[in-house]
Amino acid sequence: MGKILEVNLTDKTLRDIPINEEIARKYLGGKGYALWILYNDLKELEKKGISPKDINPFGPENTLIFATGPATGTPFPSSGRYHVMTLKSPLTGSVGSANSGGEFGPYLKFAGYDMIIIRGKSDTPVYLTIIDGHAEIHDASDLWGKNVFDTIDILKARHGEKNSSVACIGPAGENLVLIACIMNDYHRAAGRTGVGAVMGSKKLKAIYVRGSQRPPIARENELKEKVAKYLKIMKENSVTGQGLPKYGTAVLVNIINGIGGLPYKNWQGAWSPDADKISGETLEAKYLIKRRPCWGCPIGCGRVTKVEKGPFQILYSEGPEYESIWALGQTTGVFNLEALIKANHYCDEFGLDTISMGSTIAAAMELVEKGYIPKEELQGLDLRFGNDAALVEAVWRTAYKSGFGKYLALGSKRLAELFGAPDLSMSVKGLEMPAYDPRAVKGIGLNYATANRGGCHVTGYTISPEVLGIPEQIDRLSYEGKAKWVKLFQDFTCVVNSAVVCLFNTFALGADAYADMLSSITGWDLTADDILKIGERIYNLERLIMAKYGFSAKDDTLPKRLFTSPLPDGPSKGEVVDPEKFKKMLEEYYKLRGWVDGVPTPEKLKELGIEV
C-alpha cells in the first residue's frame, strides 16, 4: 500500500511514513522490515545514552509494530496473516515476535496501510480505528476490563461489521500477564513472547480496521497463472490437501506421540497410551461443527467446535489446535478433550498464549508433585497432573492474577526460579518449548536452542523432513547434517514471516515458488537464492539486536532434563540429547552461520549489507 502509520500514544499524534523501497528490497516487509525499524530505534536510544539492557518492556520506549508483507491480502495462497514485533519482550528480555492469521492482516492493508508503529504510552485506555486510509485515536475507558469477544462485538457494532477486523487484548494483556497475547477475529492469536502485555502497558485496548482498497500487483495476469499452478500443487499435497483440511493441525497428536516425541507431564516422558483421546481424529469425530479457514486460505485447518453438555459446556468455540491440545493436555496429563476445548476457549477469551499457559501449568504441577510449592500458596487450587477442573480454573486465575494465578502469570521460567527449581521450566531463552521432544527428534533441538525468539518450533520447523518426510525423509535420531537443515529452515521461515503468509503452505511450496509469486507481486525479479539471502539477512539482524541485550552462545542451549534424563518409555525409549553430539552440531551451525560465540561477525554483517 506504500505507507506506514506511526502512532504516538503519549502525545496522541498520527503520521504517515512512506515505505522505503530500498529497505523493502532488503527485508521484504513483515518481520524483516519491522526488525529494521526496531534496530534503528535501538540505535537512537543508545545515542541518548539508554542502554538496550535498561529498556523497560512496559516503558514508553518499547516500540510495538503490526506488520503485513508484500504478499498479505493478495492472491498468494494463505496470505491472511500479520506479524507483531516489539523492541523488547517482557517474557524473554529479547525481541518480541508473534504471528497470527484470520483476517486482520489483509484488512489492515485494505484500510490503506502496510504497517502500524505504536510508540509511547497513553495515560488512559484508548483504541485506534483505521477506516479507508483515515486513522483516529478514541477513548476506550468503556472497553477496559472487557474480554476479547465482547470487545470485538462492541467495536464492530460501533464502527461497522462489513469488511472489518479487530485486534485487541483481553484481561490478561491489561493485567500485564507476561504470557498475554494479542487476539484478532475472536479466536486468532499473535500468541508468543508476551506481546499482549506490551499492548496493555501502552493502554491500547484494540485496533479496528476497515477498508475497500486492494494492494496493487505489478504483474497481475502473470500472478493469476502462477497462483493457479501452485494451488494445484497444494491441493495434491498430502499435508496441505488432505491431512490439515480434514483433521486440522491436531492430526499431529497421534503422529508425534507415535514416534515417542510428544512431551508428557512437563517433559518427564514423551509418550502416552492415552494420546488418541485428545487427537485431531477424536476432535473431528466428536466435537467438530465445521472448518474455518483464514482469509485467502485453501487449506482451512481452523476448527469450529462445541461441547454440548457437562461441566465444560461451550456451544461455540474454535480450536484447539495441535500445540494447544498438547500444552493444555498431554503435558499436564489431562486427557479430557472437553476440558481442553474449554481451557483453550478461556485462553482466547482472556488473551493468553496457549503454549506458555499449558507449559506453565505443567511446570507448576511438577513443582507441586515434587514438594516445592507450599499448600497455602495454592489457595485451594489442586494442581495435580491430570486434574481437568484445576487446569480450566488455572487459566482464568492467570488472566486476572487471582490467587496462585499471580505466579502462573510470570511464565514457567520465573515460576520455577521463584519456587527453587529452575530446571523444571521447559523453556529456552525464557520461552516455553512446544510439542516436540528433542530427545526423539534431534534437529528440532538444535532449532530450539538457536531460535532467536526462544523455545520456538516455527522458527525452523525441521519436523517437516525429520518426521513428515517433506521435502525429503531424514533420520530423526541422527545428529549428522542437521545444522544445515536448521539454518535453511530458519532463513526460509524469515521470508515466510516477512512476505507474511502462512507457514503451512511450505509443506507444498518451496523457495522457488515464493520467489516466483513475489516477483509477480512486486515487479522485482527474485530468485530462490535471492529470497534465502533476504531470510539470512533478517535472521542475522535479529541476532545482532539480541547481542545488544546480552544474549550469546551461552543462551543457545536446552533444558538440563533433555541432556540428562533418557525417555522412560514409548517408541523413543532410552533416547537423550547427547551433550557432546549436540555441542558438535551447534559448532557446525555457527560455522555455517558465520557467527562467533553465537553472534554475527563484522564480516558476516558486511556480506549481508547490514549497517552496524
Walk me through what this model shows.
This protein has 612 residues and is of the alpha+beta class. It has 3 domains: 3-210, Aldehyde Ferredoxin Oxidoreductase,  A, domain 1, CATH 3.60.9.10; 250-427, Aldehyde Ferredoxin Oxidoreductase Protein, subunit A, domain 2 (Orthogonal Bundle), CATH 1.10.569.10; 439-557 and 578-608, Aldehyde Ferredoxin Oxidoreductase Protein, subunit A, domain 3 (Orthogonal Bundle). The protein is 41% helix and 14% strand. The strands form 5 sheets. A 6-stranded mixed β-sheet has the order 2-1-6-3-4-5. A hairpin with a 2-residue loop joins β16 and β17 (431-432). It is globular, with a radius of gyration of 22 Å. It starts with a strand and ends with a helix. The mean pLDDT is 97.
